Amino acid sequence: MTPGLMIATFAGGFIFPFLISMCWGKLVEAFGPAGGWFAAAFIVGTTWTLNHGVGLIHQTGGAWIDMAWAAAAGLLAGAVYSGASLSKAMPTIISAAIGGTLGALILSFIL
């Protein structure tokens, strides 16, 4: 991977959690539950298009990178940097990992 592709991949991974942390809550505050749907459509849709459609995230070989990993790592790092407690976040992190694993397992049975 060239240095340019590394920078583009890092930028693509940074944009998603940055937009989530900056915009999602404000959209929910302004529009209520509909703001969450707007955020899901516009933030996730726009960053997915940038990362996968335009090609900011460069994937080589068998490595598979999902935007959810970028969101999780970026939002967790931002929260810890802002002074949040990592130990208080552990139940949520563990629950998300278990839920994702169960969801993938159930999906594998269906497909």
From TrEMBL:
InterPro entries: DUF6905. Keywords: Membrane, Transmembrane, Transmembrane helix. It comes from Geosporobacter subterraneus DSM 17957. This is Uncharacterized protein. The chain crosses the membrane at residues 6-24, 31-50, 62-81, 93-110. The keyword Transmembrane helix applies.
